[in-house]
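Thread: quick sanity check before group meeting

JM: Hey all, I'm pulling together slides for Thursday and realized we never actually wrote out the predicted structure for the chain we discussed last week. Dropping the sequence here so it's in one place. If anyone has concerns about the input, flag it before I start.
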Amino acid sequence: MIGGAAGYGIRFVSEGGDATVSGNGDSAAVSHAAAKSPGSASASGAGATKAAGTSQATPGSGGLSLGDQMKELLVDFDIKSARKAAAKLSAGDLQAALALVAAMPKSADRDALRGQLYRAWAAVNPTAAWQAALADPLDKNKGFLLSAVAGEVAKTNPTEGINLALSLGMGGRRSTVMNAVFQEWSKVDVVAAIAYSKAHPDLPVDIYSFSDGISRLASNDPTGAANLVISFKDEYARGSLLTNLMGTWVSADPAAALSWAEALTNPKLRQDAIASALGAWAKNDPAAALAHVQTIPDDDTRINSFKKAWSDWFRISPADATKYLASTGDDKLLQSVGFTFSYLSESFSTKERAELLAQIPEGKAKEDMMRSVTDSQIRKGQYNQALELLNAMPDSMGRDRNVHQLGQEWAKADLAAATAWLKIQPDSSDRDLAVAGYTRTLARTDPASALEWVKSIPDAKVRDGAMKNIAVSWLRADAAKAEAWISTVPEFSESDKKMIQSMAGFRSDLIGLPVTVGTRR
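JM (edit): ok, ran it. Output follows.
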């Protein structure tokens, strides 16, 4: 087995031409004539023999032995240096180098170096390189080394590279190799690569495999590259590629990028393209980009573009972006970035978030932002921080939902702490809601205690909602006992019982009945 160390064996033959490979596993013959090279190998899987070239210096090595060259490459690994060094080695030296490197300590750099050695071997003898990669135990079920070989083949014969990938059969390894083939083909001719993939839609090709090729085309023909991108059907991948492309195009010529985007006839594509262009523009000149946003007449496009441009600015300068947001006086724009604000500020401290939120004018948009931030804090287990923010929020149904959620999630994470906290809470609607959430979790393991807690809720409407959720949770945990209890509850109508049964059918804790306040106090 080509590669070296345990399980590897190398037998050099003096004949030129392709190597022959024996062993188990998948195989695929490379149809075009491989370069004739003295020292090509026949791997037998038998015991290892000493690799040629381990002690003698190779041409252009500065007097270093092959082994020392490999060690030096790994000292401060650089992919370009490794590729350059591998390209200078003969087929025999490449096989010896693979054996030497395989015996070295495992690391990402070691595996990357082996990939470059296989790539160089494929350039001179693809058949031998492919068969050796198939048998390589360090690449079992991964496809990294096979990708190096097939990708190199695809540079000059993409159809052959595709056939190599298809020979692997179903599974993740085939997809990995296929993506490598199209990635390398795209670097040579991205238009042809994309056209081929569309003509063969059953091929397991990831759209992102074309990203390097699209970037290269965009440097000379951004319009052509952009037209290629919008031809993809996958909306998410298309948006990601378009965002990357616009980053380069807008830096060079924002007017041309926007002109292209605004001229698109498909409303959805036009909206996405304008948003991507303005998002890229905002990274360099946010004030100019957002000023342009204000001139967009279509409401949906304006809001979508604002959200993208403002988000990109917020990533770079949160304080300036928030200050601008507060100055717009446009509730629609404010509401459009509520979730984005929460998501992008997750790494901020509570104080930093509070300082930013303090700049936002009071109103529904600010409340939505604060609820979104609170959701994030509860999800991350930051219950005290969530309480601080909840205490600063005005009463609303959205805030009620968050207080209920706090009780539920805190009980899941630390039942003892949640219990101790609830015991010291003063009588209020907030306590009612938190207890309702707490009992929803408690009912899964101790429904009797959950029902005792529910009795402490004075608000009949909150208490009713809490009992229904206890019924749902109990049914999921112990259907027989829960059904026996439900039949004794006079407050539950027949329609209530049907609804509870229906909710219990959903096995997710996220599914429950709403809890609302009757009389706020």
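AS: nice. The chain is about 65% helix and 0% strand. The longest strand covers residues 11-12.
JM: adding both to the slides.
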